[in-house]
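Figure 2 data, in text form.
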Amino acid sequence: MEAVQTEGLTFEKVWAALMETRQHLEETGRKMEETDRQIEETSREVKETTRQMKETDKKIGYLSNRFGELAEHLVLPSIQEKFNALGFTFNKTGKDIAIKDALDRYQEADIDILLENGDFAIAIEVKAKTAHKDVERHKERMAALRRWADKNKDKRKFYGAMAGAIMTPAVKKYAQKAGFYTIVQSGDTVKIDVPEGFNPKKW
């Protein structure tokens, strides 16, 4: 039987294999270092993006508040006169009224504008852009106002109104269906939009 010839290992071949392995390990190490560097860079970019988003949110909140103030100043000067033209006899206009809970422990709601006389009051919520959720929140505010009035033996009837520099037809209809007067921008002033058959809710 013929013997199988095998090539013997030499020092040079072992050394060459070790050097090749070392080269592969060094290359792998460089790639891992590059990957770590890219991960750190990505992490820095994510942190910077997060910081910028927070800053943007802060600016949007500030602008939203400023627009809200602008809308309120648009409504306040003439709104008592406009409601009186509908048959009310309001003789007092208040702004930023705080409503406490039944035990006077904390502020339960706040009212942007409150028109008053001896028999009625209208709580007006002012928004730069009125949304459905604002209508729902005003329902809660009106309920809080009624509880506060009952606690203080105030027998007057309360109406609610929504005012917005921007109010879509859908939101306006939604507010009116909830029993709220709707106040919309008209040129440099505002108007009370009272549709035919509108029945304002009393609280």
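Caption note: Strands lie at 92-100, 107-116, 120-129, 157-166, 181-186, 189-193.
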